[in-house]
């Protein structure tokens, strides 16, 4: 790491007027909308130092987004020398604007670049990749770049390796929020002050690491006032000092969680490498079961909250690698898994699904994906599998180009051009019989569990 030319002290006053409108008022302590927010500590750290202020109604707006000029001015305001003779025509769309001096100074120093047509687009919302690049370049922090890297990869890798933001948790073009900005600036300030150095290579381990686990594995939780059940399998060699993968296995409409534990065979393939959780949809003890209530929107299926709570509880009680959260599902469980992978793409590393569709929406992050579907399936139409595949194509930023890959029992292809951490493998399989020999093209093939686990292990 190289020296930082902008001190934390200079940041303290730079940001007060850099980011926030003059009609905002300073909050005394906690904002009305940040209690329990994941970056609450960082927001309060900046508020305590007078760096950030809230809206007139007491909110901070942690999920509001920044634009390119706001982020740039935060970093450059107090370090800027007005006596410096700068050409202010570096981009065609900023030469007469008040912020031209900041943009041109940043362009001269290689901190920012423009777009085709010699424009900067100052009011454009800033992406996570752009925000990281600007901050890392301005503070002259060292990154590693390979010849074949996309432009944003060194900055995303830096953030991941220093436990700032996981590169698995967002698409690079996702807008950076005020909460994320607060966390980033907080970490850079404490690094600059020497109170806590950035930890290169630090792992994304859960809060349960280093703590004694429950005496018995949990099997119930209360979600929105309803007791929910699940099956838990903890590896025999579990240690609170060694993080494990965690895999959630979602059943279909007619089979229970106990039944899919018997035939998915992912647990068997994983051995002691993963904690397995088999949630039960509602109703628990009868069919048909479901993961949503009638009328739920795609972004708010009922049991997203069930997944969220289980992940939080297991993270607090067991040592889990939070970069290794996986979900598998069959039939209706595949539909729920594919939907969950879109709307919880910021926490799920990878999924494996068989014979399911999806609920389409704006996805939260990239997810490594293996999809199996039989073209002869009449219980879950093959077009539904294609719908899920096409959503992952968009979600993982893949092209339509493919190469053949050879898992057992499928005519599989891997799509090219995907986000590097989110491959997409599509397998139209030809297994038309259930394990007992009856014609059932909606089956979970007997090799699927080991193939899905092998896919997870390859990431």
Outline the structure in words.
The protein has 459 residues and is an alpha/beta fold. It folds into two domains: 186 residues, no CATH class; 239 residues, 3-Layer(aba) Sandwich (Rossmann fold). It contains 13 helices and ten strands. Strand 1 and strand 2 form a beta hairpin.
Descriptive terms for the model:
459 residues; alpha/beta; Rossmann fold; ten-stranded mixed sheet; 13 helices; 10 strands; 30% helix; 13% strand; globular; disordered N terminus
* Count of spatially separate domains: 2
| Helix and strand sequence | HHHHHHHEEEHHEHEHEEHEEEH
* Neighbour order of strands in the largest sheet: 1-2-4-3-5-6-7-10-9-8
Q: Enumerate how many helices there are, as a single number.
A: 13
Output mean pLDDT.
Answer: 89
Helix content: 25-40%
Number of DSSP-assigned strands: 10
Can you identify the CATH superfamily of the largest domain?
Alpha/Beta hydrolase fold, catalytic domain
Please mark out the parts with pLDDT under 50 across 5 or more consecutive residues, or reply none: 1-28
Using the 3D structure, state the CATH architecture of the largest domain.
3-Layer(aba) Sandwich
**Secondary-structure-derived class:** alpha/beta
Biggest sheet layout: 10 strands, mixed
- Terminal Cα span: 28 Å
Beta-strand content estimate? 5-15%
Q: Could you tell me the CATH topology label of the largest domain.
A: Rossmann fold
Give the overall shape: globular
Briefly, what CATH class of the largest domain? Alpha Beta
C-alpha-based Rg, rounded: 24 Å
